[in-house]
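Please decode residue identities from the backbone states below.
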């Protein structure tokens, strides 16, 4: 799967509403990364606040790895003093290079879409910082179609991370010449797992209805979610996080062909009401 990017949030913490796994030991983390590398899975997505840059960096240094593609993120600038924001951006990027033990980064994303105003007001300086560090792509991790539309024509933004999955209709028809990376394809596990760790009644009810419906209709939710992404030609790559090697092997074994994508998605979307839509598809409202 050349389109697959390995998400690393789980490598440094218990990430995901359906994640019941214990935090992996350093030995198991290295085994996971070795499995990825031995299977030519050399694209990774991380962030300075995922606590996974260090483990990736140790693995890269120990194995003297050269052919690897890493994207990272600048944390929200919401609580950074206005006068210090540019310096903060530089410091975060510098720290990522040091932790990761690499000479280049494929993409650095702004993790908070609300930093768009800061970016647009300081675009010249930010672009120069990226050039100084020889970063290939400047990107934004986005939830909102409105923000996407504002940035889509910006010549210096080359990549977007977008939440795209079988129940999120916000980015159904993407028209862009940028690199599009799908994230949240399983909606943190809600779309495929019968066990979710939340007290949110709306999420619980939707999850139970979805799992029951899928069992009743004999729908393979895992295959449906992945094939939906692979079918969309406008998506260049997609990011998936894993708790262990077994989950990654499951994805690699998956057949790429799924007969009834459109029909099954149409049926599943009927389980969501107009009032509950945003409360289900947007983790910020959980």
């Amino acid at each position: 799967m050349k389109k697959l990017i390995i998400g690393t949030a789980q490598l440094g913490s218990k990430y995901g509403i359906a994640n019941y796994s214990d935090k992996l030991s350093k030995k198991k983390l290295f085994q996971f990364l070795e499995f990825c590398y031995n299977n030519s899975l050399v694209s990774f997505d991380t962030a300075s606040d995922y606590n996974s840059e260090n483990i990736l960096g140790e693995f890269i240094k120990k194995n003297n790895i050269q052919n690897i593609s890493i994207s990272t993120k600048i944390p929200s600038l919401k609580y950074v003093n206005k006068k210090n924001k540019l310096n903060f951006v530089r410091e975060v990027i510098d720290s990522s290079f040091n932790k990761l033990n690499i000479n280049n980064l494929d993409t650095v994303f702004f993790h908070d879409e609300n930093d768009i105003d800061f970016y647009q007001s300081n675009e010249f300086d930010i672009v120069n910082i990226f050039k100084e560090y020889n970063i290939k792509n400047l990107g934004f991790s986005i939830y909102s179609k409105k923000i996407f539309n504002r940035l889509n024509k910006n010549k210096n933004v080359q990549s977007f991370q977008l939440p795209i999955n079988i129940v999120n209709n916000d980015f159904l028809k993407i028209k862009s010449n940028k690199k599009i990376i799908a994230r949240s394809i399983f909606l943190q596990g809600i779309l495929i797992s019968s066990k979710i760790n939340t007290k949110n009644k709306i999420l619980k009810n939707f999850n139970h209805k979805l799992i029951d419906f899928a069992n009743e209709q004999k729908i393979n939710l895992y295959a449906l979610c992945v094939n939906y992404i692979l079918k969309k030609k406008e998506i260049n790559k997609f990011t998936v996080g894993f708790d262990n090697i077994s989950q990654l092997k499951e994805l690699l074994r998956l057949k790429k062909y799924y007969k009834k994508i459109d029909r099954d998605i149409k049926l599943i979307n009927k389980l969501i009401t107009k009032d509950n839509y945003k409360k289900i598809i947007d983790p910020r409202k959980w």
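Observation: The CA atoms of residues 84 and 278 lie 34 Å apart.
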